[in-house]
Structures are given as C-alpha cells and as structure tokens.
Amino acid sequence: MVSYFYFQRMNQVLLDPGTWEEYFEAFIDGKVGWVSWFDHVKGWWEKKDRYQVLFLFYEDIKKDPKHEIQKVAQFMGKNLDETVLDKIVQETSFEKMKENPMTNHSTVSKSIRVQSISPFMRKGTVGDWKNHFTVAQNEKFDEKYRKKMEGITINFCLEL
Q1: Is 160 within a domain?
Q2: What range(s) does the Sulfotransferase domain occupy (predicted)?
Q3: What is the CATH number of the domain that holds 58?
Q4: What is the distance between the alpha carbons of residues 14 and 6, in angstroms, rounded to a whole number?
Q5: Which of these, 5, 30, 29, lies nearest to 18 by C-alpha position?
Q6: Residue 60's domain spans which residues?
Q7: Percentage of the chain lying above the pLDDT 70 cut
Q8: DSSP helix/strand/coil, 90
Q9: Range of lowest pLDDT (70-79, 84-93, 114-123, 146-155)
Q10: What integer best gives the mean pLDDT of the chain?
C-alpha cells in the first residue's frame, strides 16, 4: 500500500491519491486505480494450482536474492551457471537498479512521472509501512485482511 501510494503520487497519469489517510481509506475500500488489492491477490492465489503462476515476494528477494532468481529460472525451465546467477544477483540489486536509467524510470517524461515528488525506486526497504500506518490503521487493515483473504494460505513477511 505504501509503495502504491508513492507511485500514484509521482505518476501524473493517475489521479492524485490525496493524503496518506485518504489513500489508506480508498485502498482499504478497493477504490484505487486498477482493482482492489485484496481481490487481485486472492484471485491469482486461487489460480496458482491450475495455471503456471509463480509468486515472488520482495521480502524473500531481499533476504535471499540468489535463491529467488534460481526459482524464476527453474519456473522458466532454465538452468543458470553460477557466474550468470551471480551477475544477475549483482545487476538486479535494488541499489544497482536505482542507479540504472533503464529501471529507475529517470528518462520517462516529467509529464508522466515526476521523480522529484517521489522517485520510482524509492527506498527498497522491508517494513517501511510501520513508518506510515498508525496503530488504528494497522488494526483496520488486519481486520479487512482477515475478512477479504479468508481461506487463502498465502503468508506475507512484514519485516526481516
């Protein structure tokens, strides 16, 4: 939710998300661009056993990037040697990608994305939500999550 908030703030093609408090309420109610996050995640999770769907979590990538890259390669039916794997780990680190105009969107027109509002590659840290959510918001989110995601066995890591 925090990442979407900052992305929507800098993306001039999307509606202004308003304040964090306004965005939080809109997000919880599924009234954001695209579709409700809960419905989106639940829908794909329910399809994972019928179709070839690979779930990756940013937290897992931060914790063990090599393992997660191997997971992607295996999912694609590829076998990577150690040298290639190590190079991919190096080139896809948050720090490296934040410097790369091909991934940091710094070359995108300011009429589309205003990086001075919020860079596309913002922090790359796990658990930053704790700097945004109030205790009441956290409780409200948890309650909505319990209701909307009932029966879903997906486990999110909220901090490392």
Answers
A1: no
A2: 1-152
A3: 3.40.50.300
A4: 12
A5: 5
A6: 2-148
A7: 88
A8: helix
A9: 114-123
A10: 86
